Amino acid sequence: MRGHSLQAEQAFQVGLTQAHAYHQRHGHLAVPKEDVPNGYPLGQWIVNLRTSHTRMPAHQAAAPHALYPWWNAPWSTLWQRTWHQARDHTEAHGPLEPARGFPTTSYSLGEWLYLQCTRYPGLHPEQQSLLTQIGIDTAAATAARPRRRNMRAGAEEDLAHARSYTAEHGHLAQVSATTEHHGYPLGRWLAGQRSQQQRKVLSPKRQQALNAIDPWWCPPWNLKWQRNYYRARDAADSRGRTARGSAPRRSPRLGPRSRSRCSPWSCSASPHRLETRSR
């Protein structure tokens, strides 16, 4: 094995090592595309494998399947992750109760489970088999009832996910409408809160709760600006930490954007943006 083939094999082994570590922590390889655990783009690596697995050497094609049989399932990784969440719930809290509307689950998980019950006849046979493993067979799916939401408990769950996401990422600016957090549709919920805030109909209590989590969760400027600010700030912090060593190269992605933000500093930036930049 020489040249390009050797490099490809080495790169594959690096990815497989990361996949082993992820599987050991999470029990699956349904990795979101954007995830970079330990700084490695594992999500994108697995996406690439799914695209090219029919053209890979036999030992490479077999390796991820041996690690996790559903690594290339004919359904979404979101479905697979949520199924694992449901399985973990049954292991921790006992059998699901479809006929009672899944009363022991969180609202989002119960809602997902009920949705699977309504779609049960049209699911892939192997999806049906996985659901049967957690107690949802044809009879249970037919008898299932919708998950009813306790409004107070639901609000606490919403905010708990927002706090958890902020603890992991430092802010809520990166949350888009499609963002999920541990299987919870955080992006969809936060988009609704931002819409209410912009229309000035969000309750003061909810505003206070979200402001306590992240003061800039719904800034009076475009969210893209806020995301770019955090990206530039993190890059500046990184340069500061390495200042005693050799001078790092400036990121070509951030540099021009940063200059474009600085040039109209005095005439277009709002007082709130100036305050943010000074931090």
Percentage of residues in DSSP E strands: under 5%
Instruction: Please tell me how large the radius of gyration is.
Output: 23 Å
Number of helices: 14
The major pleated sheet works out as:
none
Low-confidence stretches: 247-268
Describe the structure.
This protein has 279 residues and is an all-alpha fold. It is 61% helix and 0% strand. The protein has 14 helices and no strands. Helix 1 runs parallel beside helix 3. The longest helix is centred in the N-terminal third of the chain and has 24 residues. The chain is flat and about 55 Å long. About 8% of the residues have low confidence.
Report a brief summary of the structure.
This protein is mainly alpha-helical and 279 residues long. Helix content is 61%, strand content 0%.
Feature tags:
279 residues; mainly alpha; flat
Topology:
Elements lengths: L2 H24 L15 H11 L5 H10 L9 H17 L13 H12 L6 H9 L4 H6 L7 H19 L16 H13 L5 H10 L9 H19 L12 H9 L2 H4 L2 H7 L2
Helix pairs in contact: 1-3
